[in-house]
Fold this protein.
Amino acid sequence: MSRLAPFKPNFKASTPSKQYLLLLTLAVLGLNACQAVPNAQSLPKPENPNYKTLSVTGRGIVKIPKTLAKVHLGVEVQGKTSQIVQQEVAQRASAVVELLKSRSQVKELETSDINLQPNYTYTGGKQKISGYTATNRIMFEIDPKLSGSLIDEAVKKGATRIDSVNLVAGNSAITEAQQEAIKLASTDANRQANAALSALNLKTVEVVGIQINQAQPPVISYPSASNQKLIDSTLAQTPIVAGSQQVEANVTLQIKY
């Protein structure tokens, strides 16, 4: 009779199967996903859909004195030859410039334009040069109170045309007035909004938008006298009254209520 071999259990660890590893990975991912979901209290609250917006525009006006006169004047001469007119213009313009340089109140003095051009006549359908016109234009800034008398003196020295006199306020004064006008416009817009909402038993929540529409101050210009020869300057003194200048700003507020 043959004898049976003794039983020996096999405790050798087997290699994990691919299916087992896949299930383990999915389980870990599922656990992490569950932990990443925030609770209801941590979610941001949606904006109140019942809020509405009111748009209102305020206006601010500030008046400031005009403290600056920007003067444009010049010398214009006509003659038969270009040499003659150019020489006469140069002499007269030099005299005017020397006068202006001698006055400490004159600021930003400069030559704005020099021009020499022929004048034509037409005879029998043909064009012919009949002479020349030369101009030299000068610009400067001065206190309006002094501008009238200085213009008269410039005419005596040889100026033959006054192109314009612009009366404005100084740059720093305009900047300050614009800021003040914005403040007034903002206050005006807020006052209007509060009055309207109060009448309707509504309450302001917050300002959600601001738009500033700032208007540029107007510049007053005296009419041009460029085509008028100023020969007799002894008749009267040129009066110039500056007055005031208006600076305006508009502010639009978007108000949630």
About this structure: The first strand starts at residue 53 and ends at 65. The beta strands are 53-65, 68-79, 107-123, 126-142, 161-168, 206-214, 220-221, 244-256. Residues 68-168 form a domain with the Alpha-Beta Plaits fold (CATH 3.30.70.2970). The longest helix spans residues 171-199.
